[in-house]
Design a protein that fits this description.
Layout: H1 5-8, H2 20-24, H3 31-49, H4 59-66, H5 70-81, H6 85-103, H7 108-114, H8 120-131, H9 135-140
Helix pairs in contact: 3-5, 4-5
Length: about 150
């Protein structure tokens, strides 16, 4: 089922798209209208993308659902958020994993699966790169001190 872009952002408000005259002006001729349109597109796309971290939609499927091209959607993410679609999903997965590790004593394999990592080794590697410690060490030490982010 395809959702027309304007229908999808109706809750965000049509003013985010700019006036019809601004949309007809063409890319680059009204940068603020372009950015508002991209911001609305990214807001809807991000919500759909992160609804299921275990199986997020592909960029192509998400773009099709929103009625735009995959390149357009990817470019909008980079323009608005300064990150790629893949980076946004990875960050959300790792943040959800961090919260789970801090609040539960579940096996790492289960937490990795819940946030969308099929391989626990890949999960541990990504977690260590993001938080500076593997998940279990983070749980024992870092979770008790103020959160620090490794760039």
């Amino acid at each position: 089922m395809t959702i027309a872009f304007e229908t999808a952002i109706a809750g965000e408000g049509r003013r985010a798209l700019g006036s019809p005259a601004e949309r007809v002006a063409g890319p680059g001729q009204n940068r603020s209208a372009d950015f508002r349109c991209d911001a609305a597109l990214v807001a809807v796309a991000r919500r759909l993308l992160l609804a299921d971290l275990r199986e997020p939609p592909t960029i192509a499927r998400l773009a099709r659902r929103l009625g735009v091209g995959g390149r357009r959607l990817s470019a909008a993410f980079r323009t608005v958020l300064g990150r790629s679609v893949v980076d946004v999903v990875r960050e959300a997965r790792l943040e959800a994993a961090r919260r789970a590790i801090e609040t539960r004593d579940a096996p790492l394999k289960q937490i990795a699966w819940e946030v969308g990592y099929g391989d626990v080794t890949n999960f541990i590697h990504a977690f260590r790169n993001r938080y500076g410690a593997p998940p279990r060490r983070f749980q024992k030490t870092e979770a008790r001190t103020p959160l620090r982010r490794v760039a």
